[in-house]
Hints:
Two copies of one chain form a homodimer.
Chain A (H helix, E strand, L loop, with lengths): L1 H5 L2 H19 L4 E2 L1 H8 L3 H9 L5 E2 L3 E3 H11 L6 E6 L3 H8 L2 H4 L2 E8 L8 E2 L2 E2 L1 E2 L14 E4 L3 H13 L4 E4 L12 E4 L2 H14 L2
Parallel strand pairs in A: 4-5, 4-9, 5-8, 9-10, 10-11
Antiparallel strand pairs in A: 1-3, 2-3, 6-7
Amino acid sequence: xxxxxxxxxxxxxxxxxxxxxxxxxxxxxxxxxxxxxxxxxxxxxxxxxxxxxxxxxxxxxxxxxxxxxxxxxxxxxxxxxxxxxxxxxxxxxxxxxxxxxxxxxxxxxxxxxxxxxxxxxxxxxxxxxxxxxxxxxxxxxxxxxxxxxxxxxxxxxxxxxxxxxxxxxxxxxxxxxxxxxxxxxxxxxxxxxxxxxxxxxxxxxxxxxx
Amino acid sequence: xxxxxxxxxxxxxxxxxxxxxxxxxxxxxxxxxxxxxxxxxxxxxxxxxxxxxxxxxxxxxxxxxxxxxxxxxxxxxxxxxxxxxxxxxxxxxxxxxxxxxxxxxxxxxxxxxxxxxxxxxxxxxxxxxxxxxxxxxxxxxxxxxxxxxxxxxxxxxxxxxxxxxxxxxxxxxxxxxxxxxxxxxxxxxxxxxxxxxxxxxxxxxxxxxx
Lengths: 210, 210
């Protein structure tokens, strides 16, 4: 556990990129890759690549790069790939329903197993094997207690209440699309996808450079 | 321009959060806010709030906090709010069509003015005043040359080609939903929304803490 704390969060995100690139190279029939090459793909220095990987073990032999099969297996293990991670989705609006229809998650080992909404018109709607349920029933659902990852795609005003319910139902990781800073207890991780903030970064850049 | 370079990117994202919070406070009838309070809302220290705001001017009087009307006007100006920013969207799949239907952007000053796809079944589809066009026509479109912000929501394999076309049509800021690191020339900013990487951060955390 102490080891985990010393690993910078951003390094974990970069591991995902490295894994993606070496899987692409493997498909092309390659069996080795250098840190320089991984850096080129991901727009990072080779020193950064080596440093990121060094947090998790000694994968390379100096001068000859990394063996793709070994590195892939290690990165997959580190990132918890191979397992199927159930996800609870709350909010089946524009974004939520797009996520339900997105086939890519399953391929990556993430499956939305339950979806909830407060809207009578959405409750009962079927997406493949999944039927949207009433948000009031989150804690009643036994299966809900197994999911440790949740996605919040509800309007701003409802987001904190939903987060509180999810935390009670033992969710440990929340991907939050609502434009609000959620308060959660220690031990619960929130990552925000905030489209307005991203776009405001752009309008800032474009205003300043005019 | 030099001044812009010294401002950390992350500070700009935080300005968006501060602006959102003070607009909320204003609606509640408040006229002043302290850095401590802004920090509590956004889970940052008061020193961090003061430092972020200091990049852009001297907004506060020691001890009495910030006047909400003044701070709001300044933050809105810094973030390029008030203007209406046209956006080009490429890729009208699950995510792209959700973005087209999302009413929040317009409220924030961002309007998807054009949408393109390669799929014959999607070209010609209408979303309010907007009709999806053939991606081959991006550069033919005069209006397209006015948009400096683009959203890429195409599959991984097509993303770099689309980015190249957009850069040629004078786009300076790209919000990229494709799981790939785009190569763009200097002067073009890319921000990535990578849902799989976000979820892999979670599976990493949950695997390591088991």
